[in-house]
Amino acid sequence: SWTTANVVEDQVEAVRAQIGDKRALCALSGGVDSAVAAALVQRAIGDRLTCVYVDHGLMREGETEQIERDFVAVTGADLRVVDAREQFLGALAGVSDPEQKRKIIGREFIRVFEQAATDVVADAQAHGETVEFLVQGTLYPDVVESGGGTGTANIKSHHNVGGLPEDLTFSLVEPLRTLFKDEVRAVGLQLGLPESLVWRQPFPGPGLGIRIVGEVTADRLSTLRRADAIARAELTAAGLDREIWQCPVVLLADVRSVGVQGDGRTYGHPVVLRPVSSEDAMTADWTRLPYDVLQRISTRITNEVAEVNRVVLDVTSKPPGTIEWE
Ligand code: XMP
């Protein structure tokens, strides 16, 4: 019978059978799927799993710490955090076009992860061990969409460590490939992951990089991160997290408007609140948030984030608007 405990037990057994006495590697994204997949594999093979988290500096407030601290505390996983914040900012300098930003973020992510994977493989080799497996948080709907195959992944090795082949080939371990999202969440809770991680709303891979309309800079990221944290805290406090599919907060970094605060004129940036209701992100409606919640978010952001002097609400459905602004 289907119980979460059974699923965990079965998958742990299957992972042990697949990996044997070899080692595995997993890229954590900060999202639910990779975290649950990694936690399951950790339960199966312990320290023979190495997790890599690429800190690209485009996460929201507290998300990197959630992985570094909470995920590790619960799972005991061997985690390597790669601080690539400067590299990503450098690559994004001067770029405003949304698709260009996506390409750059994707390309830098692959570069950083390939380097980290090379290091993990080389370290294992130095101890006479091999890393043959790559863990991925593929869910059942992804399996159906891609036609059902499973297989291998190639990663370009970076030769500065020596003694490695040109391409590293890994067999895929996909412990969630029979599960739907709600089942993955149940498994995550069963494994002790925190609710705030397990119930995290969808967040795009390119992160805050595509929520700054304009060039991405360290200062703008800091501004958006503070505004976003306030919006999220107020929505959570109002008990609205599960009613909202997601609520991007977008910084219009190239727009300025005149305002007044205290006895001075301000000339600051607007942020947009984009709360949406949806089943699958293909279509969406704007969420009718209670006025008092909107009021608290607006007051707090304009009081607490000096660079922002206006909060606006996006009341566009999808279509014609997309959920994200970029
Ligand atoms: P849009 O903006 O197209 O978004 O209505 C639909 C859903 O996809 C997410 N999204 C992304 N996710 N990489 C991702 O991993 C991306 O480049 C990306 N762009 C949008 C968005 O947050 C929403 O859930």
UniProtKB/TrEMBL annotation:
ATP binds at S29, G30, G31, V32, D33, S34, A35. One of its GO terms (cellular component) is cytosol. It catalyses: XMP + L-glutamine + ATP + H2O = GMP + L-glutamate + AMP + diphosphate + 2 H(+). It comes from Klenkia brasiliensis. The gene is guaA. The chain holds residues 195 to 520 of 520 of the full protein. GO terms for molecular function: ATP binding; GMP synthase activity. Catalyzes the synthesis of GMP from XMP. Homodimer. Its EC number is 6.3.5.2. This is GMP synthase [glutamine-hydrolyzing]. The keyword Thylakoid does not apply. Keywords: ATP-binding, Glutamine amidotransferase, GMP biosynthesis, Ligase, Nucleotide-binding, Purine biosynthesis. Residues 2-200 form the GMPS ATP-PPase domain. Pathway: Purine metabolism; GMP biosynthesis; GMP from XMP (L-Gln route): step 1/1.
